[in-house]
Design a protein that fits this description.
Elements lengths: L8 E6 L3 H12 L4 E5 L22 H14 L3 E4 L2 E7 L2 E6 L4 E9 L3 E4 L6 H4 L4 E2 L2 H4 L8 E4 L5 H8 L6 E4 L8 H9 L3 E3 L3 E7 L2 E7 L4 E3 L2 E3 L3 E4 L12 E2 L6 E2 L13 E3 L10 H32 L4 H16 L3
Bound molecules: flavin-adenine dinucleotide (FAD).
Length: 339
């Protein structure tokens, strides 16, 4: 289901997840012409429910977005299935090119393309992602409470993650895997919280009847576990912004990449805003939607300012080209009506 891609609109929203649809809703309600171009692969697609979302607790990710799309359309926003492959400055706006050859012009861009989770390269792990292989205790902690939880150490966040998951279960084991062994201070903190540490590389996941039951180690032994927490490095889906002079940068949290912006989503490139996981890798659905709405309000204010400046210029100089053409339209219209 995809709307017509006409030439030209106030705002193109690149990405139709929580951040993009929320931004589009605000813009459409502000009577802006808005087109959402969405490749249809939200980050949480493998999950069965969205948790920690007030008034929509547990809704399926697909249903949440379907409702959002309906709301955007209800105010005249257009939704186009497709992938943006390039953006370029064109006059005082942007030319947005899609991978399938279509294009559209926009006065402003709201980029909400999210991120890619680079999962640890352990056989069997990817197939369990979003089910019993998890990353975020606030998304899934309740669902695995009191279970046997493993934490795979392949990055700097592992000890922190093990201590966090301990809030949901008193049976947490940290698998040292490919990371250096915990430091003396870390080992003390883990021991104090009753978190076991297992040395040795994890070589595969043990799955029975479509459920995780353990982790296999390089020495052939297996440790029983019902859930596994990982901390994937994140990569911002924003390669197409580099041509505008907006490269990705390391996020200060150490989680991976992001597109830097101020707290309202305004980037260093005039006319380009970002919201959601593409700029804030830790944002959950509610935070991503809020950021999209904030950025949309700022974009509308920016367009109001531009419209006002143009109107003032025409007002001061009624014989400017724009004013002349408006006068011409009026005269021609009057003539057509025999006035
Ligand atoms: C397994 C898992 C479970 C999760 N569970 C929860 C949970 O229970 N509760 C919670 O609050 N959060 C949860 N999250 C986090 C949640 O996924 C994010 O907060 C949310 O997806 C961020 O929304 P977003 O709009 O920034 O990005 P996304 O939802 O990822 O949406 C980005 C959209 O942009 C599109 N796109 C990308 N590139 C392009 C392009 N070039 N052109 C056009 N479109 C493009 C994508 O296809 C996608 O549709 C979970 C995450 C994971 C990985």
């Amino acid at each position: 289901m995809t709307d017509q891609l006409d030439d030209g609109c106030d705002v193109v929203v690149v990405g139709g997840g929580a951040a993009g649809l929320s931004g589009a809703l605000m813009l459409a309600r502000a009577r802006r012409s808005v087109v959402v171009v969405d490749a249809g692969a939200p980050r949480n697609a493998p999950a069965t429910g969205v948790h920690g979302l007030l008034a929509r607790e547990g809704v399926s990710p697909a249903e949440l977005l379907a409702r959002g799309r309906e709301e955007v359309r209800g105010y005249g926003g257009r939704l186009v299935a497709g992938e943006v492959s390039a953006v370029a400055r064109e006059g005082d706006g942007f030319a947005v090119a899609l991978a399938d050859g279509r294009s559209v012009r926009a006065r402003r861009l709201l980029v909400t393309t999210g991120l890619v989770d680079r999962l640890p390269d352990v056989p069997g792990l990817r197939a369990r992602w979003g089910r019993d292989v998890l990353h975020c205790p606030y998304c899934h902690g309740w669902e695995v409470r009191d279970r046997a939880i493993g934490v795979l150490a392949d990055g700097p966040m592992a000890v922190h993650q093990a201590l966090l998951f301990r809030q949901w279960s008193d049976d947490v084991t940290l698998f040292a895997h490919t990371a250096p062994a915990p430091t003396g201070e870390q080992a003390e903190r883990l021991a104090a919280r009753g978190i076991a540490v297992v040395e040795g590389e994890v070589t595969s996941l043990v799955v029975e009847r479509d459920r995780l039951v353990g982790l296999r180690l390089a020495d052939g032994s297996a440790v029983a576990r019902e859930a596994l927490a990982v901390a994937p490095r994140v990569e911002a889906r924003a390669g197409f912004l580099a041509a505008l002079g907006l490269p990705v940068a390391e996020h200060p949290s150490g989680l991976g990449e992001h597109v830097p912006a101020d707290p309202t989503g305004r980037t260093g490139v005039p006319g380009v805003w970002v919201a959601g996981n593409v700029t804030d890798p830790a944002a959950q659905v509610g935070a991503a939607a809020a950021a999209g709405a904030t950025a949309a309000a700022r974009i509308n204010a920016d367009l109001v300012e531009e419209d006002t400046l143009r109107a003032v210029a025409a007002y001061r100089n009624p014989f400017s080209a724009a004013a002349e053409s408006r006068l011409c339209e009026l005269v021609m219209g009057n003539r057509r009506h025999g006035l």
